[in-house]
């Protein structure tokens, strides 16, 4: 008898016929992915284990990229509006006609006045191209989405540390022993953070999450601090207060790496008040206590007492204590002063013994105090004690004191010593790297407030006082950061003879003369960025463009061009009125915003309001450059950049579909318009498409979008001639390039000679001078002086008090504007309302994804059970939520993971019916909702945008509301808008992948 045949079992089935590596686009993480193809279709997406960003880890979003590519909402052809704007009545046209129309609209603008084009981009990840294109066009009216996302984070860090949280730095995952997460949701940098948190858990570090809501990372934290929204800065100041009281401050670090010892002029009625005392060459000065107190030149300028404290720093009461009010008004000098032994010296001199407290008389008779003196005076004030801030923050005073003790213990009692020799920028050799293993990471939760800029600076001050910036165990810079403070590139504001702006439209203001204003001090940009109302608006103000374009403030524009910016729905505040502005007409019957060109890959709500729609590809069909000139993906030990490349041919994906990558469309439009950087001398196009631009464009000689495999033979990195084979080299390497920082250069980057030389070689820095971290910002003080009447450039009268109040050179705290201005005498709006970004979705893109929708198809308003009981609301009741601006009706759901004075929801799940080609009864449109309807785009007083007064950051999270049971609930969310005629999806059950299974079964049977 024959033995039965063994069944044929494939123990290692291949996911597809072939695999290609590229970069994910499902969030801002930009992980490496392997895309498996079968029969010309995407079969499977997995993480790339060789990629330095995610090391093979992939989240639900990344895996669901299949459904992003095959989304029914994909646009298929260029569209030209034929009906009324907002009705989604279009006719399909060919690309030749679309480009002819766009050129015919843009060419007269470029000839007449380039500023009549407002070019604003969303989460496109290609700002190195789009900003440069705007510069070539000559318009100052360009911005990216950061103004309503994270500019407080970026500016707060770049004006303090020369780097920042977010995408500019990371915790030292290998060595940190104490991590504080401030306002961190799960939508950005999620896979690297998950990997890092796993490392911290493995070696026993404590993780503390500070957030009104406990989700995601906070859910695995060792401790959750349920703070009231908008009070993070106050909490930070209370921690600083306790550290100062206990003397648990790293003065050695402060004097070596910060401006703690720099002398600040005290001249209350003079134009130099609050500026740094400088020598004839402009070098900042300190007070050298004299040879008798001077340490050896190779030693630390100040000694730290055992346990990390500091000595001899107590203020002398006889010299007068300066008080500050709640808005940080500069203290007035005491009349009782005495001269001290010593003399002024350059603050960066080696071998001096600088004073950090006391008042000193300079040779010219002016009085001055060190920066640290001002810090001690301000934050030792009883108004910042734990008992004083506890109720406002919603954190017990004993908890604040304990957290301060834990920070100090981790920093000073458990310091890290790495046996790595290094040399500082002054040539002093060090045998080891000493670090404070306290790390911090922060995100939108602290940024999206009208006090967010100073809150970000407060966190950086806390880090610096602990000596916990770019030391082992602390926050670490990621190349190309740190940058000089402030970064040297200023915003462009003048046009050259060929019409090109003298600099990129976005940059960093150093003083009032850098503002983009007219001779009378009025804004020149359509969004009012870089004006006296929002001087340090480093990312522009995308949330201001539609209102101002509609109002003609400061002038009428001709064309609004936008890319991937859903400004008629979830990317706007005051959504109903924004929709009305997009469709409003003047007395002659013409639209107040005459023309709108919109590019997107999907039928989002904004498509309906465009006059010309340019259909983009999906991320699997195009080239992209994840550039060090843009939003870097480096880690703290290496510079990294990457590409996307087409793993699928857009022309073969769907019958009749004809789409083009928007970046390539821009390249062609620029050539058609004759823009100098996009044309050869004979007028012919300089670049074939975006891929050609990536390889051949040079921002400066030898510097292009990609740093890897430069030079004609690909043998150079960072700097070198264009390499015609560069993109293929990236493809062959898995889509990325990584260059490690030398081991001796990986910490103290702001003052490490090895790093500074490496960064100069790579083109990140112009020179090798150390970067002094700024506890006290002279840039801010220059604006305050201008508001007080000093200097050639002064603000118009209506802005003077605002600038004088909020441009405090030291971090300050003030009540968020909405809570302060709503005249809430009877506590009519007792609750804060915020959104969280879910780990499983990325803004509106994710919530149209067929697989991700299975996780959540609608959102609820979550509230603490005690809050429900207080207001007579039961679990899953329909409720009215009212702000000073309006009312929405939503369904409530109890959740214990929120502090009782806050309600929250998932962001961007609510959809307008008819958009994204969802079914007509899709829960996202029927029961999903946006808090955006409750958020005004202007303050309750109506005088400014609902934004931070320093940077213009949109203040989404200042929202205050009240809640009550709905009288006659319709079992659907309100408001509802007329459905958009953008097409519906097939309502039959999704069976993607069934064809693969059938084919495989057929092959096995054969």
TrEMBL record:
Pfam families: Molybdop_Fe4S4 (PF04879), Molybdopterin (PF00384), Molydop_binding (PF01568). This is Molybdopterin oxidoreductase family protein. It comes from Lysobacter yangpyeongensis. SUPFAM superfamilies: ADC-like, Formate dehydrogenase/DMSO reductase, domains 1-3. It comes from the Bacteria. Its cofactor is [4Fe-4S] cluster. Keywords: 4Fe-4S, Iron, Iron-sulfur, Metal-binding, Oxidoreductase. The keyword Metal-binding applies. Residues 17-73 form the 4Fe-4S Mo/W bis-MGD-type domain. Belongs to the prokaryotic molybdopterin-containing oxidoreductase family. The lineage of its organism: Bacteria, Pseudomonadati, Pseudomonadota, Gammaproteobacteria, Lysobacterales.
């Amino acid at each position: 008898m024959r033995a039965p045949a063994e069944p044929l079992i494939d123990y290692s089935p291949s996911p597809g016929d072939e695999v290609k590596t590229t970069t994910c686009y499902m969030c801002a993480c930009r992980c490496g992915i392997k895309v498996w193809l079968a029969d010309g279709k995407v079969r499977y997406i997995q993480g790339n284990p060789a990629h330095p960003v995610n090391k093979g880890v992939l989240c639900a979003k990344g895996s669901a990229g299949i459904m992003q590519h095959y989304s029914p909402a994909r646009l298929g052809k260029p569209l030209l509006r034929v009906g009324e704007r907002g009705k989604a009545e279009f006719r399909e046209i060919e690309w030749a006609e679309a480009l002819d129309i766009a050129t015919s609209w843009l060419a007269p603008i470029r000839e007449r006045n380039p500023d009549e084009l407002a070019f604003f981009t969303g989460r496109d990840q290609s700002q190195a191209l789009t900003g440069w294109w705007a510069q070539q066009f000559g318009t100052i009216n360009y911005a990216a989405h950061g103004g309503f996302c994270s500019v407080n984070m970026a500016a707060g860090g770049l004006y303090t540390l020369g780097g920042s949280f977010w995408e500019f730095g990371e915790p030292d995952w290998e060595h940190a022993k104490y991590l504080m997460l401030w306002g961190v949701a799960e939508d950005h940098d999620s896979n690297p953070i998950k990997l890092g948190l796993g490392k911290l858990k493995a070696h026993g570090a404590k993780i503390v999450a500070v957030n009104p809501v406990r989700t995601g990372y906070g859910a695995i934290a060792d401790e959750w601090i349920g703070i009231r929204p908008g009070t993070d800065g106050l909490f930070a100041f209370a921690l600083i207060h306790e550290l100062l009281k206990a003397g648990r401050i790293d003065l050695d670090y402060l004097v070596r790496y910060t401006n703690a010892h720099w002398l600040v002029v005290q001249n209350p009625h003079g134009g130099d008040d609050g500026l740094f005392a400088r020598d004839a060459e402009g070098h900042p000065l300190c007070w050298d206590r004299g040879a008798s107190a001077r340490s050896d030149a190779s030693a630390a300028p100040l000694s730290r007492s055992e346990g990390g404290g500091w000595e001899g720093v107590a203020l002398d009461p006889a010299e007068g204590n300066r008080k500050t009010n709640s808005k940080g008004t500069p203290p007035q000098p005491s009349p009782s002063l005495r001269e001290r032994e010593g003399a002024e010296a350059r603050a960066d001199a080696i071998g001096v013994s600088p004073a950090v407290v006391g008042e000193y008389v300079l040779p010219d008779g002016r009085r001055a105090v060190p920066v640290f003196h001002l810090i001690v005076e301000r934050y030792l004030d009883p108004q910042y004690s734990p008992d004083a801030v506890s109720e406002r923050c919603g954190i017990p005073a004993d908890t604040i004191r304990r957290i301060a003790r834990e920070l100090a213990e981790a920093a000073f009692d458990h310091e890290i010593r790495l046996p790595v020799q290094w040399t500082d920028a002054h040539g002093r050799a060090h045998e080891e790297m000493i670090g404070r293993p306290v790390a911090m990471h922060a995100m939108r939760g602290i940024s999206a407030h009208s006090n967010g800029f100073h809150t970000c600076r407060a966190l950086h001050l806390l880090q610096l006082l602990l000596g916990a910036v770019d030391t082992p165990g602390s926050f670490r810079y990621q190349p190309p950061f740190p940058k000089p403070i402030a970064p040297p590139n200023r915003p462009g504001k003048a046009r050259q003879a060929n019409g090109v702006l003298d600099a990129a439209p976005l940059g960093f203001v150093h003083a009032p003369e850098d503002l983009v204003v007219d001779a009378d001090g009025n804004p020149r940009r359509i969004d009012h960025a870089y004006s006296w109302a929002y001087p340090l608006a480093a990312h522009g103000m995308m949330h201001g463009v539609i209102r101002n374009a509609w109002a003609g403030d400061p002038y009428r524009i001709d064309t609004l061009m936008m890319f991937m910016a859903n400004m008629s729905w979830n990317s706007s505040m005051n959504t109903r009125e924004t929709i009305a502005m997009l469709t409003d007409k003047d007395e002659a019957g013409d639209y107040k915003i005459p023309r709108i060109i919109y590019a997107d890959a999907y039928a989002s709500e904004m498509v309906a309001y465009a006059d010309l729609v340019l259909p983009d590809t999906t991320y699997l069909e195009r080239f992209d450059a994840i550039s060090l000139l843009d939003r870097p993906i480096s880690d703290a030990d290496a510079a990294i950049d990457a590409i996307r490349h087409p793993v699928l041919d857009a022309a073969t994906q769907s019958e009749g579909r004809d789409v083009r990558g928007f970046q390539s469309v821009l390249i062609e439009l620029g050539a058609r318009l004759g823009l100098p950087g996009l044309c050869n001398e004979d007028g012919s196009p300089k670049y074939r498409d975006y891929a050609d631009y990536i390889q051949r464009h040079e921002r400066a000689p030898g510097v292009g979008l990609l740093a890897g495999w430069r030079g004609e033979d690909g043998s150079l990195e960072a700097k070198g001639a264009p390499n015609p084979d560069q993109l293929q080299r990236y493809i062959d390497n898995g889509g990325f390039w990584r260059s490690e920082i030398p081991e001796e250069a990986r910490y103290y980057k702001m003052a490490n000679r090895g790093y500074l030389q490496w960064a100069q070689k790579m083109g990140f820095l112009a020179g090798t001078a150390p970067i002094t971290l700024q506890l006290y910002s002279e840039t801010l003080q220059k604006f305050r002086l201008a508001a007080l009447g000093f200097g050639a450039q002064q603000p118009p009268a209506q802005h003077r008090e605002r600038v004088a109040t909020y441009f405090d050179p030291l971090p300050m705290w003030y009540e968020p504007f909405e809570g302060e201005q709503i005249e809430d005498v009877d506590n009519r709006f007792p609750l804060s309302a915020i959104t969280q970004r879910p780990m499983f979705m990325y803004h509106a893109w994710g919530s149209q994804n067929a697989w991700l929708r299975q996780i959540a198809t609608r959102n609820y308003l979550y509230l603490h059970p005690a809050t429900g009981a207080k207001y007579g609301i039961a679990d899953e009741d329909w409720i009215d939520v009212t702000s000073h601006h309006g009312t929405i009706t939503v369904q409530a759901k109890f959740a214990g993971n929120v502090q009782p004075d806050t309600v929250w929801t998932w962001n961007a799940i609510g959809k307008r019916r008819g958009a994204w080609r969802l079914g007509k009864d899709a829960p996202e449109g029927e029961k999903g909702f946006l808090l955006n309807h409750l958020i005004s785009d202007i303050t309750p007083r109506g005088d400014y945008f609902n934004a931070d007064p320093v940077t213009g950051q949109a203040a989404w999270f200042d929202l205050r509301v009240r809640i009550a049971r709905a009288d006659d609930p319709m079992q659907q969310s309100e408001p509802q808008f007329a459905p958009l005629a953008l097409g519906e999806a097939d309502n039959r059950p999704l069976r993607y992948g069934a064809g693969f299974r059938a084919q495989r079964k057929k092959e096995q049977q054969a």
